[in-house]
Amino acid sequence: MPAIKVKKSEAERVKRLLKKIGVYDGKRRPKRSNEHIFLPVLNPQKVRELGFEIVDIELPMRPQRQIYQSLESVLKNKFTEEELKFVRRYDVIGDIAITQIPPEIEHKQKEIVEGLLTVHPFLKVIARKGFHTGAFRIREYSIIWGENRLTTIHKENGVKIKVDLSKVFFNPRMKGERYRLAQLANDGEKILLLFAGVLPYALVLARYKNVSITAVELNKEAVALGIENIELNKHRLKGKIEIIQGDVFAIVPKLGNFDRVISPTPKGVDALNLALKKAEKWVHYYEFVHENELEEFKQRILRECKKLGKECEVKIKKVSDFKPHVYKVCADIKILN
Ligand SMILES: C[S@@+](CC[C@H](N)C(=O)[O-])C[C@H]1O[C@@H](n2cnc3c(N)ncnc32)[C@H](O)[C@@H]1O
Prior knowledge:
- The protein is an alpha/beta fold and 337 residues long.
- It has helices at residues 8-20, 44-49, 71-75, 81-87, 109-119, 175-184, 200-208, 220-232, 248-251, 272-278, 294-307; strands at residues 2-7, 31-32, 36-40, 54-56, 91-93, 96-99, 125-133, 138-146, 151-156, 159-164, 190-193, 212-217, 240-245, 258-263, 279-290, 312-323, 326-335.
- The protein folds into three domains: 2-56, Alpha-Beta Plaits, CATH 3.30.70; 71-149, GMP Synthetase, Chain A, domain 3, CATH 3.30.300.110; 170-335, Vaccinia Virus protein VP39 (Rossmann fold, 3-Layer(aba) Sandwich), CATH 3.40.50.
- S-adenosylmethionine (SAM) binds next to helix 7, strand 12 and helix 9.
- Its EC number is 2.1.1.228.
């Protein structure tokens, strides 16, 4: 069976490339040796043209799964269109599903649980989500099925992230953003990560690039998990991560400057001036902005740059919907002088 042999450190990137051009054979399992991984491919000729050497190796078929079904398709006969809008916005974090059940459909909780278990048979916990509260942005959850825990290990972008959802913030939907930033960063950079949480951004950046990251987080529980996460991933990380527990507004002014500053800013906090002050080349600043105020947000950044005597270029990227007409956005700020 055709496959290509790649170094473990390269495997994630090559797999994405193969998937993108439609030549990755997802029906078979990759195989590991000490330092390499054999990735199954579909079109040896096309893969050869990309410069990879084809090897012939036996790779087992994946078991047939029913994961192709979506929760929506499983529930569509029992739920109205309106109800499905709530139900389909769920997250899976490790072996925990987090679902949104407004009071109007509480009486259908049993069907939602059954539907989730059909689509994701590996789940061990299903929890219903409340709101983010307090400075640490922790959500309230009630467990509606399974084991009585909110601790799990989530896998994304080739790293393992241990979380305890009863004590820390974690958002699996930012997976794409973390990968994007890891691709933008260059080997050798000094990076400051504000509001670091359990270190998802830091781990993904350090997984892909040989960077030196200083991460600052106030929540002691998140810092403890962050330290565990560095240990959990130590064999996979190219870069280094140092985590400091404390308030960014007290700690960061005492630190030196950095090539790149990343601020996954908690809602209602303004750390723009702090982030810009500490950055020499790039800032990635997350904020919640109404669609009519995107230009005003950009102008605010440019004014802040000017005050600091910095010339900046700003690009605003919508990252996710927050509520109707309000987006979570990332301002990619390039510092020119
Ligand atoms: C929106 S969450 C982002 C966490 C993490 N970056 C992630 O994406 O999972 C914001 C984080 O900032 C932390 N935080 C809030 N205020 C802080 C402060 N003044 N200094 C340091 N961390 C703070 C919270 O505890 C929380 O972990």
